[in-house]
Amino acid sequence: MQAIPAGTRAPAADFEVREVSTRNELEAALKLRYEVFCVEQGVPRGDERDGRDHDALHLVALVHGEVVATCRLVFVGTVVQFSRLAVARSARRQGIATALLHLADAETLRRGANRIVLHAQTYARALYEQAGYVARGREFVEANIEHVAMEKLL
Question: Which CATH superfamily is 6-153 part of?
Fold first, then answer.
């Protein structure tokens, strides 16, 4: 498990980002995803739980030992599918999502992949652009939310 260097942490929060290390952390990450996507955004549970979690590398951000953010990486050869970035309402705008994106880059390279693809909700497009992602194609609707396909070459 790797932590992001202190230089990438937001000064407003003391948090750690790393790979999920226990079953309880994974369950907390899945619960957070449900709260953000299904409860807040109205995504149908069947769309949120797509059956890919068992094949994924799950990353989390923790504050005082509690999961406050999560994302997952699914490796397909030299390409990584980045998805399910969720940050608890109380932990937003503190640099945590950016730290998870940096860790995703590091894990992608460490595991031999060199390209990350994702479907970004359009309201979050700037977050991904600041992290080096480039939009591919037109906007589209997925789970009743506007998205744009994006990719990053490492």
Answer: Gcn5-related N-acetyltransferase (GNAT) (3.40.630.30)
